[in-house]
Amino acid sequence: MGENKKKIKEILKEGSIKSYAQVFFSDSTAFGILLLLVSFFDFYAGLYGLIAVLITNIIALMMGYNEFKIKKGTYAYNSLLVGLGIGLSFAFGWQSLIIVFIAAILSLIFTIVIEAFLAKYGLPFLSIPFLLVMWIVLLSSRELSALGLSERGIYNINEIYGIGGKFLVDIYQWFESIDKPLFLKTFFLSLGAIFFQYNILAGILIALGLLYHSRISFTLALLGFATAFLFYQLLGVDITHYGYSYIGFNYILTAIAIGGYFLIPNKYSFLWVIILLPIVVLISLSAAEVLKYYQLPVYSLPFNVVVLSFLYFLKLRAKHTLPLNEVIIQLNSPERNLYYYQQAQMRFKWLSYFPMYLPFMGRWRVSQAEDGEYTHQGEWKYAWDFVIVDQTGKQFSSYGDYVTDYYCFNKHVVAPSDGTVVEVVNNIEDNIIGDANLLQNWGNSVVIKHTEYLYSQVSHLKKGSIVVKKGDIVKKGDLLAFCGNSGRSPFPHLHFQLQATPYIGSKTINYPISHYIRYIDDKYELHSYDKPQLNDEVSNMELTTLLTTAFKFIPGQKLRYQFNGKKVEWEVKTNYYNNTYIYCPETNSFAYLYNDGQVFYFMSFAGDKTSALYYFYLALYQIPLGFYPELKLMDIFPPNAVFSKTEMIIHDVFAPFFSIYEAKYQMMFVDIDDDLDPELIKIQSKVSLFRLNQNIKTTRFNITISSKGISSIQSSEIKLELI
Amino acid sequence: MKKLRYERPIINKIKAGVPDKYGMQTKVKIRTEIDGVPVKEIVEKYGSPVFVISEKTIRDTYQQAYMAFQSRYPKVQFAWSYKTNYLDAVCKVYHEEGSWAEVVSGFEYEKALKNGVPGNKIIFNGPDKTDEDIKNAIENGSYIHIDHFDELYSIIRLSNNSTKKAKVAIRVNMDTGVYPKWDRFGFNYENGEAWSAINRIMISENMELVGLHTHIGTYMMTANAYAVAASKLAALADRTNKKYNHSIKYIDMGGGFASKNTLKGAYLPGKDTCPSFDDYAEAITSALINSDIEPDKLPVLFLETGRALIDDAGYLIGSVLANKRLSNARRATIIDIGVNILFTSFWYEHEVYPAQECSQQTEDTTLYGPLCMNIDVIRESIQFPLLQKGDLILIPRVGAYNMTQWMQFITYRPNVVMIDKDKNLHLIRKKEDLLVFKQQEIVPDFLSDQFDKL
User: Fold this and answer.
1) What residues contact residue B446 under an 8 Å CB cut-off, 6+ apart?
2) Is residue A703 part of a domain?
3) Which residues of chain A neighbour B64 with C-beta distances below 8 Å?
4) Contact present, B117 and B86 (Cβ < 8 Å)
5) Residues of chain A positioned with their CB less than 8 A from the CB of B289
6) Is the predicted ipTM greater than 0.95, yes or no?
7) Among A508, A539, A570, where does a domain finish?
8) Partners of residue A363 in chain B, C-beta under 8 Å
9) How high is the mean pLDDT of chain B?
10) Global pTM?
């Protein structure tokens, strides 16, 4: 029971603080606390705001809404704004307290309902609940005579004196007396206005908080506001007019939302901010015209209208031609979203793909790749043809007059991944060389269903050679048939394509091969989530048992290492989201890992960057589980995982456009003691840090893998040995 | 004008055989060059007889065999069978192509090490391994293929004194449906000896069972026998995995693939009847892939093919010593190639070609070797043109076993020459001379200086 109470208290505390930060799309506790304090510049507004937040979170918790979302402040930020608004608009008293109470509950209801409604369209609910509730309260208040209208906000100094005495008043007056450029002044006023604090000091504090939370958000806030400011100048409207600057925050929030929060920040998202802001201005001005008949303020209406419309507008695109990418997993910070996205582009493509391998054994050559010159065109362009060639590059022995002369003829065709056989054609004659059967152009084929909307097809198989039948369940690598020369096939080859429908000859889909080895003379290259190109010689990767065993981390497993002479002990754990990580209790560090059976990855690291686990993470960032002599591999670290916080501040500012700091990973298989039954594999890895493409530091790791596991990692600075 | 060749007169009965669709072949095939190098030039430089090895043929044949298997099976490794031809130059070509070494004696083992093959890329076969051989093999991490229980006990005894685990495989013999059954090597499959040997090894501390080996026979004319053998070995591997959770790293199918030579008594020529590499590969790999072993755990497939890889690359050039008429009026030609250097003529009907322009008239001829022995016959009966003393002849497909099983008898063993890819000639084994024998022989003091006493 005590445990439960503690948990509830924790959720309430964290959820309430984060509700404040959520107004700026942030989940930072520090930023939340700062905003909470700022909201108390107007004591009663602050108080009402806090009350509204608490009421909302308590009721949401009692009613059994998602604790995770409550904890993130998702449900209460609209109530907070409503509370602040009421606090500022009405005099303090039990009547207005009751209104806050009711308004908070209404905000929660609207939040939940509107969230569910908009979720169908994949859209956020932004501050629509606030807008509706606030208007309802304002409209109804005219009938509610008991509610006294507040005079606060007019006699600023009195209020400040009430909070902080003469000292605060002095500061305030000193501040007001400083000659500030018009732009900055209105900017800060607008920022303050988000929290119904129409003063510059609040604005400055919020600006600092925003800068602390996110450099990109801060840049966007300035950009958005500047655009609107210039547009006002252009239209000849005086932005400093009270009514206008009270809606100035619309420009700031729209800029952050479009520029970096709902879209991955880059030059295109920034460009759209510049295009959209004048629209926001127009909507603000026009909305004010309409609403003034009802004596209603515009509040955040323009922001909501523009952001929602634009996001939905983007979703309806048929093709993603410009790199305007919606954030799929929201990490509540433009920086984090950006770095995660860059990682996902570079590394975690597999998150969205069902593993797919090559449908043959041994080494084959691509004789026609995607967009091939013969048949891989139009709707069938995402396909590959494979043949076998000898050392001299010939596809056949003797003169190639007979199908049996061709190396690939009658060779095993295997299942590219697990699935169920859904279509088999097995009775089409193999052509003589040079002929092509244009009537039954796919020839003998097998189609396998892997998951919904993912089918693979192999074609031109040898007549009568298919060993599976409809309905058979096959595993990756199971024999399907033998390569032949049936259908539109003038010489024996294997056609392989992926498609979304179960029919032979369905149109193809753009889908990569999970991992394969490409041979270049005597060298090997590992390609992950890539596509074989014309004339590439490729094969599936053969795994090395020593490596698969060493990199198999089982939850509950304890790892004991000697780190520079000191003993460390880690544990392998799995979390709520089924992510596996290595945890170091001593330094409270986490290294998230992923092993797709072919390649081992470290996904991310959190914790102490001097710990042994951190070096473990750096050295073993990506390791293929099949040994190929001198196989090299490159990867890229997210900059925030490697560089210090101060370095990252500068990096963040420019991150949407270019990277100041870069960290590259490189690994190479160096040595194996025995090809057949190895007991020792040596790997070298290298972490190189770059500033503006200048190498500033390189750390080399020598890694030894033995039958006991990852037995040692050494660099010039550290020594990690398995106990 | 060049002087015309003298052609002695003959009287031939007209024997019109049954013509096939190409009509009757009457033209005598002659072969005047090897890989573009004139036979005459080789003899001028290196004398007659002389063995010639074609580097190009070695590499081409190896690639052909490798392709046949590699395109059907993910993990294939060849091991060069030293006993088939252990001339260092030949071995090195195979090692360059990626072959390991398969040896059957301490001598071959030493040779392989000397050729730069790392210990862990040598397979040690054969029934005769001394304690010293076994110790070396354990220390070097070579793969010891155990032939019998006495060897197994020796390895247990010797590996107890070693810090290293002995890496072993067992040789298994079995009924593959062919005659004769080779059951003298290894442990029998059907009577359970093989399984019993596996159990002994698995419970032993100092041995690691890495592979399973079989060698079902030699000059196998049917690929199906290999399919039977492969599936039996796969069954053993699977059983071992189920009982001990120990995956067998490799399955070694030995050798025994037939070359294109024609066996004595065969009705049709070898090149028409012998299975191709593709046939063997198809049989073996299909058996393994269709076995109960999971696709991810398929063992490496080892092949110790010797004969089929090297036979075509070897040529023997000789010359005519004399012609005579036998008592039954049959023509006999004596050549300087005897069974001492062409050992395989005991079981092959070797093709013999004239190596210069010659008459198109042929006679039923017996080809005798130069030895002063009745058994020295190269061909009992061959339709052969009329050659004269000094004329050159060429015998192809002699690469396997001849250069290892040859005898120093009556005369010296000849030069062996390699033609490289760029048609250059290299002497790879010198003709023996008296010095070679003097070096080996020791005359006791009391027998020396006999002639001085006279």
Assistant:
1) none
2) yes
3) 390, 397
4) no
5) 412, 479
6) no
7) A539
8) 70-71
9) 91
10) 0.78
